Amino acid sequence: MMRIAAAFICDAASVREGLLNVLGAGISIVYRQAYPAPMAASLVLLAEATETADYNTDFSFTVDIARADGTGEPLGHVDGGWNVQPLVKELHLDMETSNYVPVIVPLDQLALPEPTVYSVAIDLKGVESRTIRFRAVEAGPELQS
User: Fold this and answer.
1) pLDDT at residue 88, as a whole number
2) Contact yes or no for 132/8 (Cβ under 8 A)
3) pTM for this prediction
4) How far apart are CA 47 and CA 43, in angstroms?
């Protein structure tokens, strides 16, 4: 069964030949000089195929971003999905190793309306859900450049 092996917010990410490249992973606090402010980050999901039945199967996910306390309007919603295709036909029969699917959800254009705690709710449909929280704070003079 497909599962979420990792989920985190980072400065930037890319995928090349199935390999995930990440800069500044594990963001839990963002400092901005004024609000509203751009999120200027990405969400990374690393899904793991754990069974041969995961191949040639459509998987879908949603991501919802909102204030963690549930007040105010939702800030963003993303729908996405994938279908895992084995790179080499014979490899999909050997599930003794992990087979990862990197997914990048750009949050660059997301506007954070105020300093507070936000939640990023991830739902891998019919499989697993996970929530990441981060805090947006106003940068003091020592952090402004």
Assistant:
1) 58
2) yes
3) 0.87
4) 13
Residue 18 is encoded by which pair of tokens? 């199935």
Cβ(111)–Cβ(36) below 8 Å: yes
Report the domain count for the chain. 1
**pLDDT recorded at residue 89:** 57
Given this model, what pLDDT does residue 143 score?
62
Structural domain range at position 114 = 3-143
Taking the C-alpha atoms of residue 4 and residue 7, their distance in angstroms, rounded to an integer, is 7
Residues of the chain whose pLDDT is less than 70? 86-96, 141-145
CATH label of the domain that carries residue 59:
2.60.40.2550
User: What local confidence, expressed as pLDDT, does residue 97 receive?
Assistant: 72
Q: For strand 19-25 and strand 117-124, is the pairing parallel, antiparallel, or unpaired?
A: unpaired
| Alpha carbons 127 and 107: distance in angstroms, whole number | 23
Q: Mind spelling out the 3-state secondary structure of the chain? A: CCEEEEEEEEEEEEEECCEEEEEEECCCEEEECCCCEECCCEEEEEEEECCHHHECCEEEEEEEEEECCCCCCCCEEEEEEEEECCCCHHHHHCCCCCEEEEEEEECCCCEECCCCEEEEEEEECCCEEEEEEEEEEECCHHHCC
